[in-house]
Amino acid sequence: MADLRSNFLGVKSPNPFWLASAPPTDKEYNVVRAFKAGWGGVVWKTLGEEGPPVVNVNGPRYGAIHGPDRRLLGLNNIELITDRPLEVNLREIKKVKREWPDRAMIVSLMVPCEEEPWKKILKRVEETDADAVELNFGCPHGMSERGMGAAVGQVPEYIEMVARWCKQHSRMPVIVKLTPNITDVRYPARAAMRGGADAVSLINTISSIVSVDLDNFAPVPTIDGKGSHGGYCGPAVKPIALNMVAEIARDPETRGLPISAIGGVTTWRDAAEFIAMSAGTVQVCTAAMTYGFRIVEEMKSGLARWMDEKGYRTIDDFRGRAVGNVTDWQYLNLNAISKAKIDQDLCIKCGRCYAACEDTSHQAIMKEKDGKRHFEVMDNECVACNLCVEVCPVESCITMVRQTSGVDPRTNKPISPDYANWTTHPNNPMRKQAAE
Amino acid sequence: MAAKKKAPKKAARKAAARKQAKPVKAKAAVKKAAKPAARAKPAPAKPAPAKKVRPADIQAGRLTKQDYAANFGDLHPRLTDHEALVEADRCFFCHDAPCQTACPTSIDIPMFIREIQAGHPKSAARTIFDQNILGGMCARVCPTETLCEEVCVRQTSEGKPVKIGMLQRYATDAAMGEKKHPYGRAKSSGKKVAVVGAGPAGLACAHRLAMRGHDVTVYEARAKSGGLNEYGIASYKSVDDFARKEVDFVLSIGGITVEHGKALGKALKIADLQANHDAVFLGMGLQGVNALGVKDENSKGIEDAVDYIAELRQAKDLAKLPVGRRVLVIGGGMTAIDVAVQSKLLGAEEVTILYRRGQEHMKASRFEQELAQTRGVKIRHWVAPKKVVVADGRATGLTCEYMKDVKGKLVGTGETFTLEADMIFKAIGQTFIDVNGGALSLDGGRIRVDADRRTSVRGIWAGGDCAAGGKDLTVAAVDDGRRAAESIHAFLSA
Fold this sequence. Notes:
The complex is a heterodimer.
Chain A: E1 6-8, E2 11-13, E3 17-19, H1 28-37, E4 41-47, E5 62-66, E6 72-77, H2 86-99, E7 104-109, H3 115-126, E8 132-136, H4 150-153, H5 156-169, E9 174-177, H6 186-194, E10 199-202, E11 206-208, E12 211-213, E13 218-220, E14 230-233, H7 238-250, E15 259-262, H8 268-276, E16 279-284, H9 286-291, H10 295-310, E17 337-342, H11 352-360, E18 365-369, E19 372-377, H12 387-391, E20 398-403, E21 407-408, E22 413-414
Parallel strand pairs in A: 3-4, 3-16, 4-7, 7-8, 8-9, 9-10, 10-15, 15-16
Antiparallel strand pairs in A: 1-2, 5-6, 6-14, 11-14, 12-13, 17-20, 18-19, 21-22
Helix pairs in contact in A: 3-5, 5-6, 8-10
Chain B: H1 7-20, H2 34-40, E1 58-59, H3 65-71, H4 81-89, H5 98-102, H6 109-117, H7 121-131, H8 135-141, H9 148-151, H10 153-158, H11 164-176, E2 192-196, H12 200-211, E3 215-220, H13 228-231, H14 242-251, E4 256-260, H15 270-276, E5 279-282, E6 288-289, E7 302-304, H16 305-314, E8 323-324, E9 326-330, H17 334-345, E10 350-354, H18 366-374, E11 378-380, E12 383-391, E13 394-406, E14 409-420, E15 423-426, E16 430-431, E17 442-443, E18 446-447, E19 460-462, H19 474-493
Parallel strand pairs in B: 2-3, 2-5, 3-4, 5-19, 7-15, 9-10, 9-15, 10-11
Antiparallel strand pairs in B: 1-8, 6-16, 12-13, 13-14, 17-18
């Protein structure tokens, strides 16, 4: 049986599934329920400075994108950091950690961008015996207007500075949580590393407006006729998160920097993908908010079963295995020729591949044969774009078949078994000349 | 479409039935209430000497009020908004969609389903009405399982088609509630068109002609418009007076006058119609009923199913409609199913459909057959009535013969059996009665028409069941009406 135990920065947890800093981790009651349900750890909802806590809106805090059967695909929120007194949170953190010593207890923090407040709060957190801190440089809404959250995360120099303070004033491991609301996530990641951060976690939510109420022309969620952008999360953001994790994982400067991955993790498979992209733990929020804490059972058993089937004993056995296969476009093999193939036994003759190819792509699919409704790829037109595969409602009905020999009927050129990419392609004016 | 009825005969039958009807107090306990009671004490049948004929057990009020309401409620209630969205999402928006090709009125089904998905059922309704102004009724009565849904790629791939009929109902119902008619009329052409019959073909024709700016007079034999939508089909498919509401909806475009009590061949002569109008459309349906071809088939106790269904559809109180305890239905089409199921729902104890060929030959769709069977109707195949058992001047049963197919020919096996019955329905099809004195060419006993539904006589079009080549379907009649109207419009515009 696969061993799901995780050791991230020396913080041990029985499995790599942590609950992300968010409403599910705002208080003892929820966190204890989560631990009872089997979660490996939590990142306690972000604490702010001592004093009167922040206040939240007293209206809708969430908006969402739904699939047709109300499947929640993307969630947007405008909730701020914890609105409970610091004292209460710290007391509960200490109590829960004492009662659940085997679970990871990370505390998320967000205080003004000055050394003193950070120094002060770190000291208070240390007293709780929490395992690590996560610096919230990510929240795109509300707190960023006050110079915190994403406002810090968007300035690499600030990230470096605050990370350094935290390492300086604390013995706890420091995780920097990154915002995706930047142009190139490698810069903030490098800054965190330079500041001495032990790890990064990403992504925080993406600035978003989920919809406009067309009756009163206001963004949703609407508070008294107005709306504000929120942070987007849930299954819809996973591809964005996965790419950002990959970018950091394969960047020469940050390679090897531990990553706790966040962003649309909904099933064990998402988690396995993030781990394959080098994540040491995954953090979950929307899936738990949608279905409740029990989903972790499926995540654990699913990951373990897959690992067993693949022969991976521990998380580290497959962690990061996908990183080396992420490359720049310019290095993709331009000699690799594929053609779409429609399995006629599986084809249900809906014609979506035809419509997509004919209207929007390469006119490479025929819709009729011998006077009958029949969909078939014409190899002499097919560029293997994969659009037909993606629009086909039947899984595995259309597949990409690699051509390894002969002539590509589209280009009439022989198929070369050799690897060749854009950097050496004759059409590339910047191509590298082979040394004479 | 309106099948003409002989009123006196109907009244007589009714009276006879009532006379025989023993007043029975509605039993508290449900549909089957009549069953044990009746079985425990059939007619006061003393162990009488042979030849004593038991009186026919034909009674009204076999059920409780609640049972009537439940039995004759909506067969498939309208989908809720959420159900419609989920179902609409199952549509793949096929290219050159097979469903659309299979629809006799060629409704752009993928498009209307997409409009439902996008939250605009009224736009979806418009897409439907563009091709089929009676899309509301067709959504209820179309045998979708043999039309659009049969060829749905989800049917061929997973055996579960998109519920196109239900989605069409969802969309059209949304639009039927609108105050304003969805179509305007073109500038008046000053032309007048006569439409004979206010059934689906006539209404569809009249509506499209009105749209094109022509003035239409519809001549209808019966007191109400709608044809078989009003007088035929099973009532659980058209609840809440939907047929009438749909007629009102169609007529609300304006420019259409309906004159009732005008049957072709009687007060109305085709020559007069031609003389007084610029064009004529015939959509009067079928007036005759096929003969069984056995002796005593006109005995008391044997009814035409279409008459009984019409009576049922018009009944203000179903509890007052008498039904036999043991009912036999002869036939294998929709009418046979409709009368059998409804007899059962009225509280008949035993209802048996007798069909001379096999299950696969029945004109009633598989869905309809299953509907009958789940309602407790027994369907017997390969049996044909051979002789009516008559006693005391009334049919008390049928002697049937087992049939078989010998090289495509139906032949009797010689083996017979006898079934007792309190009521026997003939549902073996209707026939066209030519009241035009042979003025129009016929084809297979119905009016010959071309692709544009033109008859052999210039200026006269025909469609619906009275026209040759028809499918005996509401939706096909609508298609005929619309096509004829466009052809008439082209003719009048020339």
